[in-house]
Amino acid sequence: xxxxxxxxxxxxxxxxxxxxxxxxxxxxxxxxxxxxxxxxxxxxxxxxxxxxxxxxxxxxxxxxxxxxxxxxxxxxxxxxxxxxxxxxxxxxxxxxxxxxxxxxxxxxxxxxxxxxxxxxxxxxxxxxxxxxxxxxxxxxxxxxxxxxxxxxxxxxxxxxxxxxxxxxxxxxxxxxxxxxxxxxxxxxxxxxxxxxxxxxxxxxxxxxxxxxxxxxxxxxxxxxxxxxxxxxxxxxxxxxxxxxxxxxxxxxxxxxxxxxxxxxxxxxxxxxxxxxxxxxxxxxxxxxxxx
Length: 291
Known about the structure:
The structure is a single chain. With 291 residues, the chain is mainly α. It has a domain at 2-50 and 116-192. Helix content is 63%, strand content 0%. The protein contains 16 helices and no strands. Helix 6 runs antiparallel to helix 7 (100-112), helix 12 runs parallel beside helix 14 and helix 13 (225-234) runs antiparallel to helix 14.
């Protein structure tokens, strides 16, 4: 059992590292480094959602216990058991686990496995709409993507106090929790996410804008290309990151031509040197689940 605990500790560290993309993204935004296409979704996927390796009964049982304790990182371990074993377990956990972040991870896993039960989509949709309705101001970061408590505006501090959050927890919610909700909706592969993601392009949260652009690209909604271009024009300081995260991720000539005017020389150089890979795999359901 100690071996499982050690593996669990490693998984927790791995999952935490893979989900730190907003901090990394903020650093990229502020330092002008080229933004690799589909990085946000890649980090979600790397946390184990698509892992194909088998899982032992012992590790599966331990993972279920972790999810019951609201450790969402272990949802990906349960998924490794395969749809036939994992789906019934995850459906029960969705009902019994009270933590909303963990429930969202469960809902996404079930949808990606092919479940068409509307309650999972509805849950993710509600959370995404909460992101769009949020009036949270964006916290200040340094060029490494680290929040700077001494430079927090009175407005951000007031918002954190009003929601009974520390500055650190408020910054994590604004830069990770809220944007991730839109990304999860996009990763379902369901085109019903398109109108929500289009609204996200108008957010005052740059990370929400970015995951919305990436989500629209992942869903291959070409009709959204002009909307992403317009978002780039409205936010010139973040236009390069928006173009890379959204337009370049479509992986076609029209979208690339639309993106290039917003890219810095460094981003263009990285692109043409092969350091960034245009195009990304579309979001879609990957397996089927029996009801």
